[in-house]
Amino acid sequence: MITGEVIADLLPRCKLGDWSGATIFHLRPIAPDNQTAKAKGPLPPQDADFSAPFQSGHWRSSLSDIVRGGLIWGIIRVPCGEPPVSGHWSLTAGVAVLALRWKKVLHGAVGATICGTAGKSGLGRAATGKMRTMADLKEQDNSGFSHVQRAARLSVAPMMEWTDRHCRYLHRLLSHQVLLYTEMVTAPALVRGGALHLLDYSPEEHPVALQLGGSDAVELGQAAQLGARAGYDEINLNCGCPSDRVQSGAFGAVLMQSPDLVAECVAEMRAKVSVEVTVKCRIGVDAQEPRDILPVFLEKIRAAGCQRVTIHARKAWLKGLSPKENRDIPPLDYDLVHEMKRAFGDMHISLNGGIASLDAALEHLDRGLDGVMVGRAAYHQPSDILAAADARVYGVGAARDPFDVVQQMLPYIEDQMTQGARLHQISRHMLGLFAGRPGARAWRRVLSEGASRPGSGPDLVLQAMQQVQNPPIAI
After folding, report:
1. Catalytic-labelled residue, pool 14, 80, 115, 241
2. Is 361 helix (H, G, I), strand (E, B) or coil?
3. Which among 396, 240, 394 has a CA at the least distance from the CA of 318?
4. pLDDT per position as a tens digit, 336-369
5. In the annotation, is 239 catalytic?
6. Which residues of 399-416 are buried (b: 16+ CB within 10 A; e: fewer)?
7. 31 φ, ψ to 5°?
């Protein structure tokens, strides 16, 4: 049996920074007082043989299917203050990590063999006794944050009400490599409101970054800790959102006016987590002169330890323009972002704003930028941006077929619906999958009109897909 101390020595040899051959696997212990879980079966007995495959009656998986083999990393979440879930566990809080060797997975059931279990010091603890989070473990390879920085060559922007977990799951099926971002989550919601459900995600989403909104350094540090414990690969600070609601909380783009405060927040967040802390910003706000203030802003956050920044190449007008208008009306200044890369050569600088095609993203990469973040185009035409990204941006794999992606979404839809999700909550993100193809309008119509109806499920998605596979012939 491998103890927690030995696991700490074993993991660095597993090349955790390379996720191309791995799948993140999330297992949730079933608490005896969980009414929903009772139907799934009892906890493993105190003398359970954990070298044997898990049984579906003992454990409930957040995955319906696993189609890739190889090394699987399992995250078992143990609620703070809860007693140990069985005699083999000594954890009472935090995140534990198991190395699981893939054996077989049936639909809705888990088949896996544990290669390492918990010793008295707690599963995943180093010799110091400090809890090892999933994110801590992935940072142990010699390349530091290289696996996330490599993914950041192309990323999908955090977009409120759009890039939720269902959207990110779809995007991950289209590209195994791109870096995905959550919607912005406010630090007060996590720290004061206890809204930890906002941190939920599917393990397949890795690499995935959590974007935080806030301006209180201590609170942001606490929120960053919660994000790191949840397993996020990066914590990003929002200094670019121009909405009135965000401004009233003194965060978002208004922070461009307070670079010292931003630096303080970055420093506090970095002190609390081992994953990379990054910033997303504008080139300036209101009457600021971008060529004067942007270098100062970058210098401040670099001195605080931020080595990666995404710059939306537009100013934000906090007064006079709506958030929607701020995405289109202020002119783009791509050249300024390229100038910042030349001036801050040691920083990883990504460009955001107005990127409408994969070709456009590649042009900026070819000119010397480290990364490109795509927003609305990745949402409305996800196949155009993401399906060929692995091959064209990262030089691996082949272009994904959106028809295959729809098929791969079906078990996810079924699984999420058993947990209470409605079809339209997932299918709304799929409307643009076939943008530009014959039958795309019919695909959107079938999903839009039918997904909210009671009883709608995966069958409706298949019905909609038939509209694209066999589009009506115009006469």
Report:
1. 241
2. helix
3. 240
4. 999 999 999 999 999 999 999 999 999 999 999 9
5. no
6. ebebeebbebbbbbbebb
7. -75, 140
